[in-house]
Structures are given as C-alpha cells and as structure tokens.
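ok so i was messing around last nite and threw this chain in just to see what happens. nothing serious, just curious
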Amino acid sequence: MKARLGRQVGVISGLAIVTAIIAFTLLIATISAQQRATRDARAHERTATRAQRVGALVVDAETSMRGFIITGRVRFLEPYSNAQRELPGLTADLRTEAGGGEEQRLADSVANLANAYMRQYAQPTVDAAREDRASAATGVRSEEGKLRVDQLRAEVRALALTADRAAAASESSARHRASRARTVAIVAGILIVAILALLVVELRRRVLVPVARATSAAGRIGGGDLAVRLPVDRQDEIGELGAALNAMAVQLRETSDELEAQHTELESQNAELEAQSVELETQATELEQRGFELSETNAVLLTRGAELETATEQLKASSERLRLYAEVSEALARVPDGETRARRLLERLGGAVDCPVGAIYLRSSGGDDALHLAAQRGLDDAPALGEDAGGLVARSIEERKRVVASYPETSLEVVSFGARASIRHEVHMPLLLGDVGDEVLGVVSLGRTSAEPFTQEQLDLVEHLVSTSAVALFNAVVSTQREQAAATLRAVFDSVGECILVISPDRELLIANPPMDALARKVIGIGPDEPWDISDLSVGFRRESRDPDAMESQARELAADPFARNRAEIELPRFGMFLERYTSPVIVGDNAIARIVVIRDATEERQAERAKDDLMSTVSHELRTPLAAILGFTELLTSRAFSPEEQEEYLTTVHEQSVRLASLVDDFLDLQRLEARGLDANEPFDLRPVIVDTVQFYGAQSAAHRLVYDGTSDPLRVTGDQDHLRRVLSNLLSNAIKYSPGGGDVRVEAEIEADRVRVAVVDRGVGIPAAQRARVFERFFRVDSPNRSGISGTGLGLALVRDIVQAHGGEVGVDSVEGEGSRFWVTLPAAV
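result:
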C-alpha cells in the first residue's frame, strides 16, 4: 500500500512540476521574443532617423555650396564642412544597423549616393569655386547637384518607409507576444490549480477515508487541519499510516507555501508585461509625433530651398562684379610688396572701366606727407607729386572723396603723334584708411581717351575696388617695412659673436642668434635638430652651473621686477666655461615688452689670466734658482778668501748659472714675442742648407757624439722664418746631445711627404717615460727620471720649438722608449 500510494503521489506531483516548467519556459521564450521585437523596432526607427539625417546633411551641403559660389563668403561653407565631417561616420552607422533585405539595399544605396555626392560632385565643385567661382557657378547651373539630391531624397524616403513598415511589424509582433505571454500565464495557473485539485481528491479518496475509519485524528487531517500531528506509537499498518499522515501534512504545508509564492511571482510577471505593453504603445505614439515633426521640417527645408533658388537668380546679375572683386583681391594677394600690388590694381582697374591711362600715388614710407609714384599705366612720364600736390589730386585728398573731371579740366597727358594730348575724362579716388577715412594712404588716378564719360556704375565699381584695396596696399607697405626691419635686426644679431637671447614677458623664446642656439644645445644636451625653450635652458644652466642657488635667486629677482637690469658670471665646470651674462628689459613707452639677454664667453680670458699667473709663478721660481746660486757664490767670493782652485770652481758655477739664466731669459722673451706678435713666416727658402749647417755646427760641439744628416739631397722648400726654424733645429739637437750623456750617434732625417716637409732628430739617449711623454712640450716641464739626474735645463726649449712650428702651420711630436732613445719630428707645409 505504501509503495503504491507513493507512486501515485509522485506521478501527480511530477505532472504538476512538468506543467509549471513548461509554462515558465513558454513564458520566458515569449518575453524574449517580445524584447527582440522591441529592439528590432527601435533599430528600424534609428535607421529611418539616420537616413533622414543623411538627406538633411546633403541638402545643407548643397545649399551652403550654392551660397558660397554665389557670395564667395567662406562662412556659407560651414554646413558643407559639417556634412563632410559627419557623413562618413553616419553612413557607416546606417549600413551597420540597417536590417536585411530591401532595407539593407536601400541603406547601402543612400550611403553610396551621399558619399558619391560629396566626393564626386560637392568637393570638386567647392575646390573649383575657390579657384574660379564663375566656372563653378556654370557647373551648379547644370542641375547635376539637384538631380543627385533628388535621387538621394527618393532613396531616403523609400528607406524611411521601409524602416517604418518594419518597425510597425516589429511593434505588432511585440504586442502579439505580450498577449500570448498573458495567455500562457493564465493557462499555466489553471493547469497547476487543476492538478493540485486532482491531487487533493486522490488523497481524500485513497487515504482520508480509510484513515477516518481507523482514527478520529485522521478525520481531522482529512478536514484540512494540517497542523494536526498523530502520535506514532505502533509498528503496524495503522502506525505506518499515522507516520505517513504526519509526513503528508508536512509536505502539504510546504507545497501550499510554494504554490502561493509561484502565484505571487506569476502576478508580478504579468504586471511587468502589462507595463511593457503600455511603454511600447507610448513609444509608438512618440514615433508618430516625430514623423509629423520630420514632415514639417521637410516642408520648411523645401521652402528654404525655393528661397535660395530665388536668391540665386537675383545674385546672377551681380556675378560679374563679384568675379572682378575676387580677381582683384586674388591679384593683390599673390604679391607681397606695395608697388607690385599697386601695379596689379591699376591694371585691373584700367581694364575694368576702359581706362588706358592711370597712376597710383602712395605716401612715402618715411612717415611724411609726400606722395610718390607707385605705379603708372599708359604714361611715358607721370607727374611726380610731393607734399604740395595740387589740382585734382589735392582736391581728392582734401575732400576725402572721388573727383571726376572732363576736358579741359583734366590734368593727365599722353604723347600722341609726337605731341602731348590731354585726357578726355579723369577720375581721382583717394585711398582711405580707418572706419571714417581719417587717414589718406594715397590716390588712384584713371584717365580715358575716348569721348564716352564714366557711367555711375563704373564710378561705383572703381570706388568699391579702391576702398577695398586700400587696406591691402597699406598692409603690403607696412609688411615690407617690418620685414626690412626684422631682416636688419636678424642680420645684426647673427653677425654678433656674443650669445643674444630675447624673451617675452611670459618667458616665450622670441629670438636666439646662432651662438646662443649653439650654447643652449650644448648646455641642454640636445642635437642640432631638436627644439628647445626657455624652461629647458634654465634647467640646463642650473644643472651645469657651479652655483645653481645663485642662478635661482637671480631668476626670482628678474621675475619679480620686469624692469630690472642684471650682470652675473656663470661657471660651467663640466664644459670648462666661464660666461658673463647681462640682461636688460626692452621698454616701449611704460611697458617692458621683452627682455634681452647677452652672454659673452669669457673662458679664454679666464684661462689666459690663470695661465699668466701660473707662468709668472713658474718664471719667478725658475729665475730665482740660478740667481740664488749666483748671489750665493759671489757673496762667498767677496766675503772670504779662497784658494785659486776653489775660486775657479765657484766662478765656473757662477758662469754656468749665468748662462742658464741668460738662456732662460732668451727663451722666455722669444715665447713672449711669439705670443704677442706671432711670426712673419712668408719667405720661401730651402730648409736643407739650414739643416746641414746646424748639424755641422753642433757636431763640432761634442767629441762624444757623432751628428749625421741622413736625409734627401733634394731641396726642402718651405715658407717661413729661417732664424726661428734654425732655432728649432738647434734646440732639438741640443736636447739630443744633452740627453745622450754616453755619447753616440745623433741622426737628422729629412724628406718630402706629399705637400709636407718632415724633419726628425733621432738619438740613442735616456728616452722619456711613457707617462710623461705627452707633457714634454709644456713650458717649464722637465722629465723626472733617474737617468736624467745631473742634466740641467730650463724646460722652455721644447715649448719654444712647439710654438715656432705651430706658428709656421706645422706639427711637432715625439716617439720615445725609456732607456732606448727618442725621435723628435717636425712637419712643415711645403712651399708652392
């Protein structure tokens, strides 16, 4: 009995669950389909809206293009520029969101027509209008643009209609699916209630009747009191029945609660579906309203199009005049200087009003009131006007208006058949500046040789062209003056050796001459093509300066006082540079409009001062040593009596120190003369005899050494000073003998290498340590080596050799190995 009852209850309960699942599945599917239909409707609405926007942009572009061609005013191109900017993205979105089938085809067609209109018609037409609006106007009159726009409008209307139909179908589908969702919910509720009712009936028939016969408690449960619990104190069928009844009571309570919750949820979902249905109806109403608004907008656009067409017809009558205005403006804009612009203006004016004779007079650039001839037409000798210009020209200037005259009042003359003939009709027009014409830039004079007088239209045309050209002529004159002043200032700055920097009050770089640019790049640490500004330069100076705090303090002082003047010294240790900086404001009126900074490189001066101090210290030391020996020994000789041998020894020492002192003074004076006056090394001569004579002379000075000339027998022609070059050879040979105390060969080599003469002195003496080799040509430097003890010298001989050779444009060097000897070489430019 228990198993059979469980199966029955399970079947009925399963049926209820399956029914609920099927109902929920159908309900969810219906809701999803409704949402998709809603999204499709919105997508179709957006497609229609974008298509209408594309059409509106193209119509605006057509309208603005016609306005620009008619008026020549660039501001009319703003709608055209907006269409150029928006159409690519808008047509791409239109293609992407369009539905399939006919809607997609129409969307592609609208996008293609719009893009083709802009690329193939509008853009070429606008470009042509910028160059020649007359030819562009002819293209517009061909109605190609109107045909393209009409075709696009037709496609837009078709697309909008297709999209509206698709949106309406989607909205209808959404409403249908909402209705079906309500039906599914109601049917599912009914089925679930029916199944529950069936379950209750089965329980009453199969359980409650037998239990009611067995116990009164079972009857109470059968009556619906689910809170009743039967005590289970028996193990027979009745006990099992009581336990089953207790379990069933619990299950019934849970099932009841669950059903109530499901019912509540179904009611909530039903309310949501009804709200969505109301929202869809509201959106449909809004779409209808927007459709009416778009229709009204389209009607307004059509009205405006008709008005523009009417305006186009009205402006055609003045197109020739506008073309002439544009031609004159373009002719003036192509040339920069005032006189060329004056000639162009005179040519256009004369051609426009049939005046073969004319002249333009402009104020002098010097700021006085004199008029000078800037251009002439058809006149062999136009009259020159000064401050006292009279006649019709003076009247035109004084009255600030045009003056028209006919023969015999005319003042211009031409040569006809060898005689001067007066002009039949003249017009003189002042070139006025300012809103009220308070300044006269010059005068335009035109003359006509024919009998027909000027018409009012021609006079108005001349007056308009002259008034509009006055500013262009004035700007050209001012621009030329400014360019000349700027070029002069730039040439001055570029030719100055000091670094010059001009900064605006807000620390913008205005001018930096080439030395300043090179210094800035060095301090900042950038290449020749990289940009830099004042902030970079300030950071670089503070980073490289020995005293960055002082620089920061000076910068704050200058920033606090725009009128401050300042001098400072800047030391850049990493570059070994000393700079002197001077800064001053550039004052115009009561304002400091800029700040100029001048930086002078004082490195060489500082180095010269240091070198001078070092030289004086070294010279005083070197002079003091032999002088001390001379004074000491002479004092001994005068204060005490010595044997003849001792006197001879002391006198020999005094003589040696005197010779050393004399040699030191001679070398030092030679060095000073070289530094002060240089060498007049312009005498060509053969160096070979000088070398041979010097070798022979020093060969006789030492019996322990054998001096050999091992060089070419060809002439060694150089340009220079024979005595100084002889001094070079003497010093090198003297050193070779001195630093070869053991005697031996001293060889002199000489040869010609391309355009150089090379001379070398080679010895087998004590040599030079590698660590000291680079300093042997420094003043007063003597090699410190045990092998050289007892060898005297001043330390100036090789320094003198270096300075003499370099003064001749040559080079000097040494190759040496300690203990093996040295090779001193000299190269000199060969004489031509």
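not much to say yet. The longest strand covers residues 577-588.
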